[in-house]
Design a protein that fits this description.
Length: about 60
């Protein structure tokens, strides 16, 4: 009987603590791209235009 109780708790507890709204996390990695090559960081002053990355940056967070 104790085994059934432990198994029942193991099945129920993770579901109770699981987050209903999981965050969307997007990590963009690239090689040989400087911070001035992304217009979200340089405000477009350098000449590079990255509208898709800018849109993602406006809707989320920017890290330096």
């Amino acid at each position: 009987m104790a085994v059934v109780a432990v198994l029942g708790l193991c099945l129920v507890c993770p579901a109770a603590f699981a987050a209903k709204d999981k965050p969307n996390i997007l990590v963009i990695m690239s090689d040989d791209v400087g911070i001035t090559n992304i217009s979200a960081y340089s405000r477009g002053l350098v000449g590079y235009q990255t509208p898709n990355i800018d849109r993602i940056a406006n809707e989320g967070m920017l890290f330096t």
